[in-house]
Each structure stands twice: as structure tokens, then as C-alpha cells.
Hints:
Layout: H1 18-40, H2 48-67, H3 69-76
Helix pairs in contact: 1-2
Amino acid sequence: MSVxxxxxxxxxKAEVNQETIQRLLEENDQLIRCIVEYQNKGxxxxxxxxxxxLHRNLIYLATIADANPxxxxxxxx
Length: 77
């Protein structure tokens, strides 16, 4: 299960730190590899669930980046 998926009772209680972001980036890497593998095998319909998780992760990361514009610019330096 994606680390971006959080039950309602835990929302707002998780600390966003570098480790969490790194885990999401690694998960996204695996999701992309899996999606490409399915597509190369002609099984595009089977990768939809992975695309949904990837999309959710990307939106979550973008939300974090938007909320912390100074930390995002520091990370790029």
C-alpha cells in the first residue's frame, strides 16, 4: 500500500520528513517501472491501478512542495 494513503483517523498526524519523501520517491520509481513493464507486454488495462497510486503520490508530493516553497528551493541547490 502506498505511504501516501493514510486512514482518516491518522490524517494530519503524520510528520512529513525527508525519509517519508524518499520512500514516496522510491515507491514512485517502482510504480513507473511496473507500469512500463505492463505496457510493454501489451497489458495497459492491468496497470491502471498502479497509475492511480502514482497519481495520488505525485499529488501528495506536489502538495508538500507547495506548502514548503523554501525547503523545495533549498533541496534543488
